[in-house]
Amino acid sequence: MLWSFMPSMSQQASEKKELLQVVQQFFDALEKQDTLAWNKIFLKDARNFYLVERDDSIRTGMQDPFSFRSKPGEIIKERMRDSDVTVQVHQNIAAVWAPYDLWINDTYSHCGVDVFTLLKSSEGWKIASLSFTVEKEGCGNIPQKK
Length: 146
Hints:
7-stranded mixed β-sheet, alpha+beta, Nuclear Transport Factor 2, Chain: A, 2 helices, 47% strand
């Protein structure tokens, strides 16, 4: 009877699909500069953390996702890579590890890894935190933006 306590495979697949949809909504809102959509996918007290390695130094910091604004005329296109995306779910907490590539105004800028921590509330899955790296080197084969 132990198996009856484990979530079904279809339920797990459904949860992972929902989580990846929230992550895709993040990328879409970023590109479209859609603040309404952006605000809906984050918890009200969410935080972003970043790590940038450059010239043998490491810079880290924190950002309030609600104060993020791109520069006027700047279009940011971030795309999750098709490989190495990992989704982990335990009840109402989840993590999505997603390698990405980023373009600014159609010029390739950098790659990195996004790590989304999501919590499930009565409103569905919301981003509680986003930690990401900014990597100018070691990006490998740069995909065409989709």
